[in-house]
Write a structure and sequence with these properties.
The protein has 217 residues and is α+β, with helices and mostly antiparallel strands. The chain has 4 helices and 16 strands.
Length: 217
């Protein structure tokens, strides 16, 4: 079991729920200290509040609807130890000033790369880019907060010169949950009623499901 914190403009909830990959992926993309551009200037993720407008790559300013947070606690018994690690992306790993300085990401972070044909962008889990040279796992010495951010639609957000995806669940997996587990999952998001209310995704569902398998393999 794990504690999850959910923040909207109307509510602040702390929920105890299973430490399942689908659940954890909604809360663990951006390490504390990750800075995003807003209509009020640069702001670290831990200080972002629902209602603030975030600068997105393709859709301009978009309101932050929901912020999720959980703690990564080192050496906690788990069936998927990668969920207890951060990813350090070294300066310039993806090209000049990408990132501009070393970037710490949570295990659910996804890198957005434009498609070469101009179609849907490619979303790659940061864990799939681990090469122990420019991107590598690191275990925090103590508990660290990790976050995820939900907008009206999934968008690319820029942190340190790297485009990262806002939250959107793999809807195929949500629909396959049993009634009780689905109700528990949806309780994380009190501002929406149905899975379809997560808005448009950056990629199709088959791609999302395949990449989720890769992420948690």
């Amino acid at each position: 079991m794990r504690r999850y914190e959910c923040l909207t403009e109307q509510t602040t909830n702390t929920l105890i729920a299973p430490a399942l990959p689908l659940f954890e992926a909604a809360f663990s993309a951006f390490a504390r200290g990750t800075v995003f551009k807003t209509n009020q200037g640069p702001c670290p993720v831990e200080d972002l509040m629902p209602g603030m407008a975030l600068d997105t790559v393709d859709h301009g300013l978009q309101p932050l609807l929901w912020r999720g947070m959980m703690n990564i606690v080192p050496n906690t018994p788990t069936n998927h130890p990668e969920s207890q690690q951060l990813a350090r992306v070294m300066q310039g790993s993806f090209g000049f000033a990408r990132p501009e300085a070393d970037l710490m990401l949570g295990p659910a972070a996804e890198i957005v790369r434009p498609a070469p044909t101009g179609g849907a962008p490619n979303l790659t889990p940061v864990t799939a880019l681990i090469d122990d040279h420019t991107v590598f796992h690191t275990s925090p010495p103590s508990s660290v907060q990790v976050f995820h951010l939900m907008l009206p639609r999934q968008c690319g957000l820029i942190a340190n010169g790297v485009q990262l995806a806002s939250y959107h669940p793999p809807l195929e997996r949500v629909r396959l949950l049993g009634p009780n587990m689905k109700q528990l999952f949806m309780s994380f998001f009190p501002h929406i009623k149905r899975p379809e209310d997560f808005g448009p995704a950056l990629r199709n569902e088959k791609s999302a499901s395949r990449d989720a398998d890769l992420h948690w393999a």
